[in-house]
Specification:
Blueprint: H1 2-11, H2 39-47, H3 52-70, H4 73-78, H5 83-107, H6 115-141, H7 147-172, H8 177-185, H9 187-193
Helix pairs in contact: 1-7, 3-5, 3-8, 5-6, 6-7
């Protein structure tokens, strides 16, 4: 599992993505300091969420499809022959990640303790990555046309995207106990986690 998460973190730096876990972070030490361990159970039931099994099946399937699309982005970013090629690949990366976000969001929250938080955290990490790709595109557009002269900027862009990919890895590496059985029972999730 650690190898898969390291590959995920390296995705944005141009390395092929092999897999992800389907989950959110149920750790109270995250950015939401008002979260408690008791409240999610009450709010999840009111949300009308989907079953844990349906949630992880959808999320793992979408992540698998996304990973398949991303297999080409790393080498394309690293070996772009021109600034225009680099920017075009960033556009493809944004499109693929936006589609992932839409599909994961449409899955709805899982009907488990902390389900709303799980879904919101995963959605937010995907949205943050889309935003990072937008920022990378803006930076890439300001690079010199000469590939050699642009290399330092390209390296910085890839480093920034690697950090954003690391944020996704942090979110997806923490399978909450409320989803663990569903993740373990799903063949697609199991294949992603290796």
């Amino acid at each position: 599992m650690q190898r898969k998460l390291q590959i995920l973190a390296a995705l944005a730096a141009g390395v092929a993505l092999v897999g992800l876990a389907a989950c959110g972070d149920d750790d109270d030490s995250g950015s939401d300091t008002t979260t408690t361990t008791e409240a999610p159970s009450d709010t999840t039931a009111a949300s009308g969420g989907v079953s844990a099994e349906d949630y992880v099946a959808t999320v793992c399937s979408e992540l698998t499809d996304w990973a398949s699309q991303l297999d080409t982005f790393g080498p394309e970013l690293q070996n772009a022959a021109s600034k225009a090629d680099f920017i075009a690949t960033l556009g493809e990366l944004k499109e693929a990640t936006s589609a992932l976000g839409a599909s994961v969001s449409a899955a709805g929250p899982p009907d488990v303790d902390g389900g709303e938080e799980i879904a919101t955290t995963l959605d937010a990490s995907i949205t943050a990555y889309v935003d990072a790709v937008d920022e990378a595109t803006t930076l890439a557009e300001s690079l010199p046309e000469d590939q050699a002269a642009a290399q330092e900027g390209i390296n910085q862009i890839l480093s920034d995207l690697e950090s954003a990919g690391g944020d996704i890895a942090t979110v997806v590496s923490n399978v909450p106990p409320s989803l663990q059985d569903a993740v373990d029972a799903d063949a697609t999730c199991t294949a992603l986690l290796g």
